[in-house]
Every structure is written in structure tokens, then in C-alpha cells.
Amino acid sequence: MAPGCSVSLHLEVRFEDGFVALSTLGEEPLVCRIGDGTLTPAFEATLLGLEPGSETHIIGHGSELFSPYDESNVHWLARDDFPSPIEPRPGLVVAFETPGGYETGGVIKRVEGEQVEVDFNHPFAGHSLTIRVQVLSVT
């Protein structure tokens, strides 16, 4: 696998407690072109040189492989900012629309009365990860 190649692969991402945060195993594989921005350059670097049919396990940190954790991406929102019938609770992932019209996800960290703390960092940022990659094809 090299920059510019089209790749089809299965991906499984586990947090250090064993929780499977993402898996395409048994589902449609991820298809992308190395360098097209689908994957971060740091994550792509771990894939370079892999051949079709190979499988590898990567142990790394989400802040290095996906996105740095930024404390300024954690915000308090009013409970009223959540669309009905969503009842905010810790761990819930909620889709929000930015002022520019883009959709972004946030993970609810805690609820205190009418205020809800939401983390808008990449869900893998700040976590130790074990990533299983099965390369299906490279063209």
C-alpha cells in the first residue's frame, strides 16, 4: 500500500477496556484512497506497505492517530438545546448542527440540573486504542 492507492479494508477499534468503538467486520468494508483525507496521515502511515490479505494490530493513542484532544472542545449547553425527545445522559452521542450548517457529533460527559457538558472532540481522542486492520484489496 502506498500514497494514491485505493484500498478496501476492515477496521476494528477497541478502547483499552475492550469496548469495541468501531467495527466494519461483518459489514461493508471501508473504501478510500490513501491521501484523500478519509484517514489521518498518522493513521495512514501505519498502513503503508501492507498487502492485500494481510492483517495487523496497531496499538496507539487516539490523540496521535486521529485527532489531538482539545479541552476547548468541551462545552456546557442548556438542556433546552437538545431536540425532543432526546433525554441527555452521560455517554450518549448526539448529532448537532453547527452555525455553518455542518453536522458534528458530541458525547455527553455529564448532566447537572439544566446544564449538559458535551465533548466535541473526536471520540477516539484521549484514549489508548487497539486497532485491527484486515486489508482486502489495494489497487
UniProtKB/TrEMBL annotation:
Superkingdom, natural source: Bacteria
GO molecular function terms attached to this record: peptidyl-prolyl cis-trans isomerase activity
Range of residues in the leader sequence: none
EC numbers: 5.2.1.8
Record's catalysed reaction(s): [protein]-peptidylproline (omega=180) = [protein]-peptidylproline (omega=0)
Keywords: Isomerase, Rotamase
Keyword Isomerase annotated: yes
Enzyme class, broadest EC rank: isomerase
UniProt xrefs under SUPFAM superfamilies: FKBP-like (SSF54534)
UniProt similarity note: Belongs to the FKBP-type PPIase family.
PANTHER family attached to this UniProt entry: FKBP-TYPE 16 KDA PEPTIDYL-PROLYL CIS-TRANS ISOMERASE, FKBP-TYPE PEPTIDYL-PROLYL CIS-TRANS ISOMERASE SLYD
Record's protein name: peptidylprolyl isomerase
Organism of provenance: Thiocapsa imhoffii
Phylogenetic lineage: Bacteria, Pseudomonadati, Pseudomonadota, Gammaproteobacteria, Chromatiales
